[in-house]
Amino acid sequence: MKVAVIGSGPAGVYASLELAKNGVNKVILVEKEERLGGTCVLYGCIPSKAMLHPVHLLTELEKLGKKVSFNLDELRKFGQEALTRLSKGVEYMLEDNGIEVVRGVASLRSGLLNVNNETLQVDYIVLATGTFRERLNGIIYSEDLPYLNRDFQSVILVGGDVGGIEFGWMLRKLGKEVFLIDKQSTLLPYLDREVSNNITNYFAKIGIKLYLNRSVKEMREKEVVLDNGEKLTADAVYMTFGRKPSIQGFEEINHNPYVIVDEYLRTSVNNIFAAGDIIGTHTAHEAMYAGKIAAINILGGKKVFNKEGIPKVVYTHPTIAYVGNMDGRCIKLSLAELGRAITEKETDGFLKVCVKDDKIVGAQAFMKDAEEVISLISFLIRFNVRINEIKDYVAPHPSYIEVITELLSRLR
């Protein structure tokens, strides 16, 4: 069997590895970029988390009365070091598993795969081309931040999505004047209203100037004109939203606008599967999982892509994390009641959990270590663990995990 994987982001890499480790004779990964890793490694989750990490540390030290400072150039250096190492790591990992990497542009014409204008005969294709950005002249985008060799004292962020929230928080903690514009009335409005309101109020409290319920009429290098005619000026304007699926060259596959797949990630073309942002997953860990599912099904499996209980995280401080649906009976616990939070002066924040039919169906946290807390809850959701079984779990003390056991102990 010969399989071509198009794209070296998380979905493409994990599909390639799963195929190679399970006996596929030839796996070819096609990548148009010079470096491997896709948006996550080169522009998104990896450099951004490397830049955010020092800001988390200085925020924690501030609570203890200590002052530490970083400048934007230092953070960019951390981001560049991380993405370079991870990209090289992807290259070595593929090589170690016998996966051939071909640099070039792939396309599908009359059902045949073309790479660099030559037909490549394969049995199956995994489409993992991700998303792209339509760029406007003079406008900086959130993925540019790890690369730009410039500083600024004020910035306008257009878009209150995950990227806007993370970078807005980071830049504000660096002492920048931050304007954040979003057309919704609160930040992350798809969350529980109480959670969304708390996040919005926190951002206003730390000094981010929020322009909510506003859309942008005009955008220039250092100026934004809002729908009501108001003008905002700053040293830089960043756009944080607007990525589109990279369907170019594969328009023969049904899409609207993302590639349409069945529960096994098979597309409208029988021997083509798709995974990652191209099908609208939007997180690297979902893309990794989808890549593995696509590979398993190419190998003859019948494994369903299960979206239930996959956690999402926004890496601010406090961290925002959520999973599932906020249905049924919902209860909340403030971190001011948690021993570990008191010892670390991290009492801002809370966990909110919703229970239905003796199971947790959803949870949202705005707190220190929310990522770990929500990850454990996602495990409980995905494996259908009942409340009475969870109550028999013993959490370490003092820990942030205790917020789960303490909260559930109050259920009657």
From TrEMBL:
Keywords: Disulfide bond, FAD, Flavoprotein, NAD, Oxidoreductase, Redox-active center. It comes from the Archaea. It comes from Sulfolobus tengchongensis. PANTHER family: DIHYDROLIPOYL DEHYDROGENASE, MITOCHONDRIAL, DISULFIDE OXIDOREDUCTASE. One of its GO terms (molecular function) is dihydrolipoyl dehydrogenase (NADH) activity. One of its GO terms (biological process) is 2-oxoglutarate metabolic process. This is NAD(P)/FAD-dependent oxidoreductase. Its EC number is 1.-.-.-. The lineage of its organism: Archaea, Thermoproteota, Thermoprotei, Sulfolobales, Sulfolobaceae.
